[in-house]
């Protein structure tokens, strides 16, 4: 029986890349850095991880099974733009608030992990998005137009 020789590229893939892919798929995405304590929404404190780089924003809260109470993730962009989020590979039911450059809430959505392909967009240009446990905004009386109070670290890298 004839066996086709394995190319050097395929050997590299099998030996080095394939094992690391499996390890990455079994863990959570890298957490945003740093953490803002306390971020306040309508006076209610919230601890938020910050996702400010392309890689952190792409990963977001995906591949996590849980998140502490009164925690969330703040997605930061250089400038205001139309934003669209989805629940691909995200297992925690979430609510999202889109914020303008002045930290005012432009839109709120309840996101369903059972519909991973559904898109949740901002109707107006937004500079920030804040994800929390589903229902957190509603249970804390948060509405469109409310202010989210936070200060970003001066040395935060945003790309």
Placed side by side, the strands forming the largest sheet appear as 6-5-8-3-2-1-9
CATH H-level name... which superfamily?
A: Protein of unknown function DUF192
CATH class: Mainly Beta
What best-fitting shape do the alpha-carbon axes yield? globular
Output the structural class: alpha+beta
Write down the CATH topology: Jelly Rolls
Termini gap? 54 Å
Ranges with pLDDT <50 over ≥5 residues?
6-27
Computed over alpha carbons, the radius of gyration is 19 Å
User: Which series of helices and strands comes N to C?
Assistant: HEEHEEEEEEHE
Task: Please state the second-level CATH architecture.
Answer: Sandwich
Supply the number of structural domains: 1
Largest sheet: 7 strands, mixed
The oligomeric status of these chains comes to: single chain
Proportion of residues in helical segments: 10-25%
According to DSSP, the number of beta strands is 9
In percent, how much strand structure appears in the residues?
Answer: 25-35%
């Amino acid at each position: 029986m004839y066996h086709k020789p394995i190319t050097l590229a395929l050997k590299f893939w099998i030996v080095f890349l394939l094992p690391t892919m499996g390890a990455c798929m079994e863990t959570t995405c890298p957490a945003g850095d740093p953490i803002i304590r306390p971020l306040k929404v309508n006076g209610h404190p919230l601890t938020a991880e910050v996702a400010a780089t392309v890689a952190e924003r792409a990963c977001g809260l995906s591949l996590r099974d849980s998140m502490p109470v009164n925690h969330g993730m703040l997605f930061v962009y250089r400038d205001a733009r139309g934003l669209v989020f989805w629940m691909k590979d995200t297992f925690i039911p979430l609510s999202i608030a889109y914020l303008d450059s002045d930290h005012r809430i432009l839109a709120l959505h309840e996101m369903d992990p059972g519909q991973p392909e559904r898109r949740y967009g901002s109707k107006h240009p937004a500079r920030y998005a804040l994800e929390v446990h589903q229902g957190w905004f509603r249970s804390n009386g948060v509405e469109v137009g409310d202010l989210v109070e936070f200060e970003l670290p001066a040395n935060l890298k945003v790309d």
